[in-house]
Amino acid sequence: MKVSKYYNRIRKTLFNNKFILAGIVIILVDFAIGIVGAFWTPYPVSETFGISLPPSSAHILGTDEFGHDVLSVMMASTLTSLIVGISVGALIAIISTLIGLFGGYYGGKISGVIIDILTITALTIPGVILLVIIEAYFRAASSTINITLSYIIVVIGLAITSWAFGAKQIRAQVLSISKRDYIIASRLIGEKSWRIIFNQILPSILPLTVAQFLFGVLYGILSLITAEFWGVLPTNINNLGTMLFFISSNGAYLSNQWWWILGAIIPIMVLGAGLGILNIGIDEFIDPRLKEVKPKVIPEKIVILEEQEIIEVPMLGNYKNRK
Amino acid sequence: MVITVNFILPRLMPGSALAVVISLIEGQNGVAATAGSSAIALEVSQLEAAFGLTPAPWYVQYAHYIQGIFTLNLGASITYYPTPVLSIILSGLPWTLFLVVVGAIIAFFLGSYLGSIAGFNRRSRKDLVILIITSILAALPSFVILMYLEMWLSVQHGIFLISFPSKINTSPNSIMALSRFYTLPIIALMFTSLSGFVLGMRNNMLHTIRDNYVTYAEILGLDHNRIRKMVYKNSLLPNITAFAIILGLAISQSLTVEGLLTTPGVGFFFGLALTSKDLPLLQGIFLFIAIMLILSIAIVEAIYTILDPRARVSESE
After folding, report:
1. DSSP conformation class of A319
2. Taken in order B16, B18, B20, B23, is the CA torsion positive or negative?
3. Closest Cβ–Cβ partner in B14, B203, B293 for A283
4. What mean pLDDT comes out for the span B147-166?
């Protein structure tokens, strides 16, 4: 019963808001490329053809300097990068929201100070560094590391170094909300703090959480690429970062192999476009005043007693428009 | 606290820097060196003692490190031995700052301008085009944009230089070469940070545009461009924060761009220190990243209270 109510609301939002729908569709298409690429590619990834062939009908994105089909490599690399990005985004959103909520609600007390110190510390650690350290450990521990496990650790490492900006923003918002009258009223009736935090404050900061998620996704993908660029993560696994590592280490931009670079960035560009459109759609959640409300005309009957006689006056719901 | 973390982090890295250096030397000398590997191991431990790395217990190292910070003695780099870390960083910092500051200033004005147009014409075609293009640019790593720019304008047309000029002096020729070299990296960095400014401006503008004074201006019959400029000024604050944060993160920002072009900036040294596990250099760069971030956050807060009277009120609460 309750689920269907939520479902209806989500469906309504999606179809009223074409931008959100379009953004989600574009991102899903990107994922579809990745998922298809994980199981099927036009050519096997390791198969070699002529070296550095420009795009043709046989190889839509040409071949790279090792003779691999760029489109196939791209498809095989997309999913891992996207998953890393999405999970970093989700983790950042969750951590920054929770810390922002508690830090803001208990602000000024000792716990608030501790959270502040944590935030500033986390701000100053560049995420890429933590990646390198973690990775170095894994390489030292054993030569055959579990790839999934190392990705999970990469995600956690990126998330714990980059929640701080979001937490700062959310905390400021929570600070001002928790001084509003309705929160104080709830506190006075003895409402439990966790209920105030999650039922009353959380809904109004959700847009900020969504923004954190969107930026986190890009941040995750870009950080992975930066780390790969310097070759500090293993290059024997397929993701867009490793692709770019080979591109830069082979100087593809010096020899004019634009198709190879293009292959490595198409999935990111599609994702970026999707997120951009999503952002246009989401702005009305950030500021509810922007929501286009269709004026509803509710015929009302106002009963006026006048000299024992009943007169029925039809009236528009929005009385301001009734000039 | 921050300083402590900076101390701990590089030490968590397994594999000593000297081992990397030694392995490089071994690689050059071939098999001959492996014969005396026990002698090398002894040498390593002696050198490590000289650099203050392993043998001393952590609290001695820590005290040494704190003392180093206050006396501005950050030790010597291992890869560039015996150049002190501080002089390496200080020599690279102007290049990095120049690159990032110029890029950020252009991005600040261009991004805010585009953002104000997008926000003013919300959900129009202009808005859509601006937002999609800047989001795509933001999703791209800056060095990829740079690769395309270099490929097109340097390699094919030769308008801009691709490698850092070898001789730097104040003669007009040298300055010309420098500007020909730096134009493209600045543009690349500018493009990637554009989106933050556009979004910041746009989302803030959507708030302010509903304020009463805007309606008043509309009723007065001011033309739209004029109103847009009014709202622009009032929505600029969050972008100032973004600007300062970009400056604070300058070193991490320029990591890949400087790495690609091998510019002698801090970002480049940072990458080198990462790959060669140059502990003292890494530590020094961490320290600078932290200092720059904290400074820029402090400056932002100061600027905020000057520019926005409301922030002063909320501070006193």
Report:
1. G
2. negative
3. B203
4. 80
- CA-nearest residue to B268 within chain A is A230
Helix (H), strand (E), coil (C) string for B107-123: HHHHHHHHHHHHHHCCC
Chain-centroid distance of CA B285 in Å reads: 11
pTM: 0.76
Instruction: Please indicate whether, in this complex, the C-beta atoms of B9 and A271 are within 8 angstroms of each other.
Output: no
Residues of B in contact with A261 (CB under 8 A): 144, 147-148
Q: Residue B160 and residue A131: Cα distance in Å, rounded?
A: 35
Q: Is A165's CB within 8 Å of B245's CB?
A: yes
What is the tens place of the pLDDT at every residue in A121-147? 777 666 666 666 666 665 655 555 566
Token pair, residue A137, equals 């450990």
Of B135, B256, B289, the CB nearest to A275: B135
CA distance B5 to A121: 8
Question: How does pLDDT run across B253-305, given as a tens digit for each residue?
Answer: 788 888 888 888 888 888 888 777 677 787 778 778 877 877 887 787 777 77
Place of tokens 């545009």: B209
What tens digit of pLDDT does each residue of B61-112 get?
666 666 666 666 666 776 776 778 888 888 888 888 889 999 999 999 999 9
Which residue of A124, A240, A257, A279 is the best one to mutate when testing the B interface, meaning the one whose CB has the most B CBs within 10 A?
A124
Q: Say which amino acid occupies A81.
A: S
